[in-house]
């Protein structure tokens, strides 16, 4: 029987990878991002176990990395999959280089596959409307915790479809990140971007009413649950609030439940894409849209602009 290889690294490499993940966590990377890095490095670990009986980190050289590049070419048909594996390894080697464990970063000489921009697949407008109608109806529950959960999910909906936020933006939002104007201007949400200064995005006017109702019930249920936190979002069971904050995966599960319950096309990503199409159809300035989305000025919205007429 052939030996089954695993993705478990050598003790030396395992310790370094754990330190690498800890550093990423300290930089504020989300749990979802950390999981992606681990998946990508597990691929490298599997390759090492398959091709090398034993190799120390000090002997990670250009030949080993080039052979890994060829391995990825054979293993993955997706350009994006190969590209992500290479990028994760490049960042890990930068970490090893900073620790003085390697003399250079050979991954930087490895050609990466071009990024493939998939066609946007937004939530159809009829499904957006179906979800919002359901959320409004659900919020009229006589059960206080159910009413609060429904209001929380309306807040999620308005932050994604109204302001184009990603789940990683939503996870750590605090109540202080929401600004309600006293002079009639649109409410705004503050985004803390990992690579540039914080910025704000306008929210739909309806957000004010939903948010005001939400805060009243949230404060009431915090007191009942004997808990206090500054997070905008929270976890709860059918009886009480459990904790402040809501992970990216937790947000995705909420939308999975609505997708299955209402039989609609819906993920946080597809709802965010619907927001982008909505902005384009409202003839918002493309530079402003990219700013709201936290994208670099060089990012091309060509695919969205081409498909916007089909979003109804």
Can you walk me through this structure?
By secondary structure, the protein is mainly α. Helix content is 55%, strand content 5%. Helix 6 (144-162) packs antiparallel against helix 8 (206-225). The radius of gyration is 23 Å and the shape is globular. The termini are far apart. The model has no long low-confidence stretch (mean pLDDT 87).
Write the layout of secondary structure elements.
Elements: H1 11-26, H2 31-51, H3 62-75, H4 79-98, H5 125-138, H6 144-162, H7 167-171, E1 178-179, E2 188-191, E3 199-202, H8 206-225, E4 234-236, E5 241-244, H9 248-262, H10 268-281, H11 286-292, H12 302-307
Antiparallel strand pairs: 1-2, 2-3, 4-5
Give the tags.
55% helix, two-stranded antiparallel sheet, three-stranded antiparallel sheet
Shape: globular
- What characterizes the major β-sheet? 3 strands, antiparallel
| String of helices and strands | HHHHHHHEEEHEEHHHH
Q: What is the beta-strand fraction?
A: 5-15%
- Evaluate the radius of gyration: 23 Å
Low-confidence stretches: none
Distance between the ends: 57 Å
Compute the number of strand runs. 5
Structural class computed from helices and strand pairing: mainly alpha
> In which range does the helix fraction lie?
40-55%
Strand order of the largest sheet: 1-2-3
Mean pLDDT: 87
In DSSP terms, counting alpha (H) and pi (I) runs of 4 or more, how many helices? 12
